[in-house]
Each structure stands twice: as C-alpha cells, then as structure tokens.
C-alpha cells in the first residue's frame, strides 16, 4: 500500500501476485429457462410464478405476475421508455 502524496488523494494498492486457494461454489440453475421476447429477456423459474423481465442490454423492466402478463409488461415499458432501451 502506497500512501497518497497529498491529503485527500486515494492510497494505491499494488498486487504482486494473486493465488487462488479454492474454487467458489457455483449455483446450479435448476428448472430455469432464459427466453427472448424481441429485445427483452425473461427468466422462467419452476419455483416461482412471477417472471423477471430485462432488456437484452440488462436494464430491469419489471416482474410479470405470470407468463401471460409478460407482453403487457413489455408493452408498458416500451411506451414509457420508448422502444430504444
């Protein structure tokens, strides 16, 4: 760690080596399906009725109460934010 040259500046941390001691646990996606609705991505999960909806670029759209409500949620999002999100 290098102290800043003047007060108010950030300290610098230099890493000379990085060692992985163990691997982390990776959650297993069980009964989950990603699907595209045009420029939108939805995640169907067998354990939940509500369906998360995102734009393809990752912007949160909302959570549809059921698979039947996905297109309504997307339509509302596009009307409010325009179709370019």
Shape: elongated
- What is the CA-based Rg, rounded? 21 Å
Major sheet size, sense and barrel closure: 4 strands, antiparallel
Number of strands: 4
Coarse structural class: alpha+beta
Averaged pLDDT, please?
85
What order do the SSEs take from the amino end to the carboxyl end, as H and E?
EEEEH
Percent in strands: 25-35%
Strand order of the largest sheet: 1-2-3-4
Unreliable runs: none
What percentage of residues falls in helices of 4 or more residues? 10-25%
Cα end-to-end separation? 42 Å
Tally the helices. 1
Provide a quick synopsis of the model.
By secondary structure, this protein is an alpha+beta fold. It has one helix at about 70-80; strands at about 30-35, 40-45, 50-55, 60-65.
């Amino acid at each position: 760690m290098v102290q800043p040259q003047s007060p108010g500046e950030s300290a610098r941390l230099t890493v000379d080596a990085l060692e992985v001691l163990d691997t982390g646990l990776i959650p297993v996606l069980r009964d989950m399906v990603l699907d595209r609705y045009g420029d939108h991505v939805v995640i169907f999960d067998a354990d939940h009725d509500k369906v998360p909806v995102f734009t393809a670029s990752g912007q949160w759209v909302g959570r549809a109460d059921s698979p039947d409500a996905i297109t309504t949620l997307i339509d509302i999002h596009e009307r409010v934010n325009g179709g370019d999100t």
